[in-house]
Design goal:
Blueprint (H helix, E strand, L loop, with lengths): L2 E6 L2 E6 L3 H22 L10 H5 L4 H14 L3 E2 L4 E2 L3 H7 L5 H27 L11
Antiparallel strand pairs: 1-2, 2-3, 3-4
């Protein structure tokens, strides 16, 4: 597994590339929740400028258990400072506080970019941006 290091706030985290099966399975779960934000992942330089709040707009309580924590688990997200994997609500509470809650979502965003940006970029490059419906002739 290729592991990347992320410095977020004053803390260091690591995460890796998922295996293909987990990435595909989790991408299917993820697509309906944050498809507008995901579509920006494959647009080259715009990746750095994407608004993380776009990711938060589709989240609810169930999303954490069903999507976010499984993604972090599959990527092996790890807090170097806390010497702890981030794979559950308890881990989240041990590694983040209300003051660093946004750092948690920045970590999720980095893990999403690491694992899904190449796929989305390839799909967009191959099929183009399909955000508009084709005109129907009457």
């Amino acid at each position: 597994m290729k592991v990347e290091t992320f410095i977020i706030g004053n803390s260091e985290y690591t995460a890796g590339k998922m295996n293909a099966f987990d990435a595909g399975r989790l991408l299917i779960k993820l697509k309906g929740i944050i498809s507008p934000a995901l579509s920006q992942l494959g647009q080259g330089d715009d990746i750095q400028n994407t608004n993380v709040m776009d990711l938060l707009s589709g989240l609810d309580e169930k999303t954490h258990e069903d999507v976010i924590f499984p993604i972090l688990t599959a990527a092996g997200a790890y807090s170097v400072d806390n010497k702890r994997k981030i794979a559950s609500a308890n881990d989240m509470n041990m590694c983040f506080s209300v003051d660093t809650l946004f750092d948690f979502y920045l970590l999720v965003w980095e893990v999403l970019k690491l694992n899904f940006a190449p796929f989305i970029g390839q799909v967009t490059g191959h099929f183009g941006n399909q955000n508009t419906m084709p005109a129907v002739e009457a």
